[in-house]
Design brief:
Keywords: NAD, Oxidoreductase. Pathway: Nucleotide-sugar biosynthesis; UDP-alpha-D-glucuronate biosynthesis; UDP-alpha-D-glucuronate from UDP-alpha-D-glucose: step 1/1. This protein has 19 helices and twelve strands. With about 500 residues, the protein is of the alpha/beta class. It has two domains: about 230 residues, NAD(P)-binding Rossmann-like Domain (Rossmann fold, 3-Layer(aba) Sandwich); about 170 residues, 3-Layer(aba) Sandwich (Rossmann fold). The longest helix is centred in the middle third of the chain and has 32 residues. The relative contact order is 0.08. The protein binds nicotinamide-adenine-dinucleotide. The site of nicotinamide-adenine-dinucleotide (NAD) has 26 residues, from helix 5.
């Protein structure tokens, strides 16, 4: 087999960037270039402040991009890569003709969101970014380049890619593989370094098998052979949708039980433990909460529902749609609870929301559950909804809530958690950031006795004016940049700092 020497990853996002970096790390002889049409994103990947936050990512990128020999190991147990001996082999670019033209193998890692208009709006996948990338491949790629679907796509997309390529280059051949990505945001580097499995779907032809072997050889640099699974293309494409649908289904299952618990006096955490210790069921994804958010679960289940409907399988579609319905129901229950605890009105009240990211350890604002919570709270016309998230960029939050009625006047985004919570009547933690964790039970979350007890610090302090309030000192950017919010936040998260809850308690409205 001819080894792959030049890889192009189209799409410098949450999947393309980390995947390319880990691929480059473990294949020092392979040049990996990440191509994106957004020059700002590319510039950011080349700077000291990467466009996405992922634990461990900055180290891998520095090592592979700059050949930074000061970093000798990404993870103590990782591998025998001799970092000091090699130069950087990871590149970022907007130059499609060169990157695509030189590649032996191209990963398609572009976004495939849910369509929001036209046929299938609200459930089908929008493949326009993918189509545009494939048209670039048709223009610039050399004959025989292996095309790999890394993006999550509906079952049958490989045929669509093949048809586009055939229509432009009918005499040439481009093997198409499916190689979906199973990483989770917040643990992307860990997942890429130690995946449960890598799935490669190929056609049962000689060219298909050869292409699959060439791709598998790249992964074999760090992943044991028995974790590299080979299937046909359609199984591989569908497996990704099914994996996400089943994970989301567990969340909806336990959340539906949480509603039952609230009516019966059972404790959903005890139930999750009792049920999860059965090793046929397992303990993961059984934490009741606000539901699932993020750019993948909702979109991928919707895509599955759409595929089932298109294939005239209404019962299958209804089954998976129920998983989405429970997710919405759970959020509505949450905001109903806030409003009812505040005498059924938010008028004249400030509500603080801690966390905007859909899960901890990511700054991704897309499809955040917080948006639905904010929309629902805004209907009650509070004086203010204050948001603090230790990682989400302000413009990302603004973009997600811009369409909400009243957001412009009533929603305020803070970079200081204590200013965000100060004077609020309710405080909701929407993301389980370690920064929000308290070592002891929170005095502010206990129901206050009607009469303040003088010795209880939180009670007396809650009523005290904010005399001693001083803004927190954020740690300095590790790269020494002046007034660098992203660097300061990164430092805040990396140095394990925790929120000072007694300070929050002092500043809440009684
Ligand atoms: P993203 O939006 O973060 O990144 C996509 C990038 O592709 C963007 O930077 C965009 O500018 C670029 N792009 C779009 N069209 C292009 C074109 N024609 N040429 C060059 N660049 C182009 O998306 P993401 O979160 O990385 O997701 C990518 C795919 O991976 C999606 O299909 C998603 O469902 C799937 N996936 C995502 C995750 C996740 O956790 N985010 C996990 C597994 C799989």
């Amino acid at each position: 087999d001819i080894p792959v020497r030049n890889v192009c990853v189209i799409g410098a996002g949450y999947v393309g960037g980390p995947t390319a970096a880990v691929l480059a790390l473990h294949n020092p002889m392979v040049k990996v270039t990440v191509l994106d049409r957004d020059p700002k994103r590319i510039a950011s990947w080349e700077s000291n402040h990467l466009p996405i936050h992922e634990p461990g990512l900055a180290e891998v990128v520095r090592l592979t991009r700059d050949g930074a020999n000061s970093v000798t190991s990404v993870e103590p147990e990782s591998d025998g890569i001799d970092a000091a001996a090699r130069q950087g082999n990871l590149f970022f670019s907007v130059d499609s003709p060169t990157c695509i033209g030189h590649a032996d193998l191209i990963f398609l890692a572009v976004n495939t969101p849910t369509k929001y208009s036209g046929r299938g709006a609200g459930s089908a996948s929008d493949l326009s970014a993918l189509e545009s990338a494939v048209r670039d491949i048709a223009k610039f790629a050399k004959n025989g380049t292996v095309i790999v679907e890394k993006s999550t796509v509906p079952c049958g997309t490989a045929r669509l890619i093949s048809n586009i390529l055939l229509s432009v280059r009918p005499e040439e051949s481009f093997p198409i593989l499916s190689n979906p990505e199973f990483l989770a945001e917040g643990s992307a580097i860990k997942n890429l370094l130690h995946p449960d499995r890598v799935l490669i779907g190929s056609t049962p032809s000689v060219a298909g098998r050869l292409a699959a072997r060439r791709l598998a050889a790249l992964y074999a640099s760090w992943i044991p052979g028995d974790r590299i699974l080979h299937t046909n293309v359609w199984s591989s494409e569908l497996s990704k949708l099914v994996a996400n649908a089943m994970l989301a289904q567990r969340i909806s299952s336990i959340n539906s039980i949480s509603a039952l618990c609230e009516r019966t006096g059972a404790d959903v955490r005890e139930i999750a433990k009792a049920v999860g210790t059965d090793d046929r069921i397992g303990a993961k994804f059984l934490k009741a909460g606000l539901g699932f958010g993020g750019s993948c679960f909702r979109k991928d289940i919707s895509s599955l529902v759409y595929i089932a409907e298109s294939l005239n399988l209404p019962d299958v579609a209804a089954y998976w749609r129920a998983v989405l319905n429970i997710n919405e129901y759970q959020r509505q229950r949450f905001t109903d609870m806030i409003v009812s605890r505040l005498s059924n009105t938010l008028n004249g009240k400030k509500i603080a929301l801690l966390g905007f990211a859909y899960k901890k350890d990511t700054g991704d604002t897309r499809e955040s559950l917080a948006v639905d919570v904010i929309a629902s709270l805004l209907e009650e016309r509070p004086t203010e909804i204050a948001i603090f998230d230790p990682c989400c960029p302000k413009d990302g939050i603004e973009r997600e809530i811009a369409h909400l009625d009243g957001a412009k006047d009533r929603v305020k985004i803070y970079s200081d958690p204590y200013l965000a919570t100060s004077g609020s009547s309710a405080l909701a933690i929407l993301t389980e950031w370690d920064f929000f964790k308290a070592d002891r039970p929170l005095p502010v979350l206990r129901k206050m006795p009607p009469k303040a007890e003088p010795q209880a610090q939180a009670t007396t302090a809650a009523e005290a004016p904010l005399r001693d309030f001083t803004p927190p000192v954020l740690p300095a950017c590790p790269d020494g940049c002046q007034n660098c919010v992203s660097g300061q936040r990164q430092a805040l998260l990396e140095n394990g700092q925790r929120m000072d809850w007694s300070r929050v308690a002092r500043s809440l409205r009684g």
